[in-house]
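Case 325 in the screening queue. Each case pairs one protein sequence with one candidate compound; here the compound is 3-hydroxybutanoyl-coenzyme A. For every case the pipeline is the same: read the inputs, emit a complex structure as tokens, and attach any notable structural observations.

Predict complex for case 325.
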Amino acid sequence: MTPSNVAQPAADDPIRVAAFEGRIAAGETIEPKDWMPERYRKQLIRMMSQHAHSEVVGMLPEGNWITRAPSLRRKMSLLAKVQDEGGHGLYIYCGTETLGVDRHDLIDQLLSGTAKYSSIFNYPTLTWADMGAIGWLVDGAAIVNQTVLAKCSYGPYARAMLRICKEENFHKRQGYEIMATLSKGTPAQKAMAQDALNRWWWPSLMMFGPSDKDSPHSAELLRWKVKRKSNDELRQRFVDLTVPQAHAIALVLPDPDLKHNTDTNHWEIGPINWDEFFNVIKGNGPCNRERLEARRRAHAEGAWVRQAAEAYAAKQRGRAQSTAA
Ligand code: 3HC
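Case 325 output:
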């Protein structure tokens, strides 16, 4: 993963590790030029690259509906959202490159099928209501996750989240408006919104990762303040925010065990189907193959754009050098 020109760091010096841990404990922000344990760097590359892949692959299920939006206004907001997601991906790839990796290596891993991206994007978008459910639930979950990531100990990642969350809020609002409009519409429209909620609710809960007891990375990431809340804490926060929103637009959550605990003031959910989760992240979800094929096709078809941009950049560099000479 690391380009050959980046010297492999020596094994972490315990004195430096102790100083690093002290900085984290003091709530300091780690910047690209700062010394960091190799494991900290590797964890960030893993998490940030998967995040960037998720943003770019996430364009596919929604892009599928741009030409079929029911009005110009809906088309414009969906188009803007999908473009935003592409920008989020590029932004986070840039952040990942501050850790000494080359985005081309990361993208090759995605295209070869060896890199992970969020499970949520391996589900099909069957009706227009899915655009509402994705904006409301998927981007809603992303906001819960990313507003906390904006306090992450690694500076470039935290700052990227600040900007991205502003756009995610627009994404969520336009999605929730679609669901509210459909829910107030004809019986067929309300049924379409309810069907989308039924299909997207549980996969949205899985976005927060396995339960804390089954998360191999959380303890380390929490200690290093990369994660500031655990998977289950963020999932609970999302549930507590979203259940009242569903009630407000008269939609029913597909969870017969859902109940409000007046002592804790939390909404308690039924069991998550973790077999489904691990199956999807293993590559056996409804759309894993289709998403990768579409991503590979887009990459191949976009080669000419990359070549033209590289040729132009080379020409500009040549001009700058001859002017400087
Ligand atoms: N989909 C795919 N893989 C997942 C996953 C999911 N929903 N949740 C967890 N995993 C994977 C992890 O990557 C890890 O696999 P690895 O060791 O091969 O990398 C394994 O399952 C164990 O999970 P952990 O909980 O221990 O892993 P993390 O500590 O990394 O937590 C995470 C997982 C909560 C997704 C965390 O990585 C995270 O917060 N990432 C940053 C945010 C992000 O990536 N969001 C993805 C959605 S992008 C998005 O929302 C776009 C928006 O515009 C809609």
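Case 325 observations:
- The beta strands are 259-261, 266-268.
- The first strand starts at residue 259 and ends at 261.
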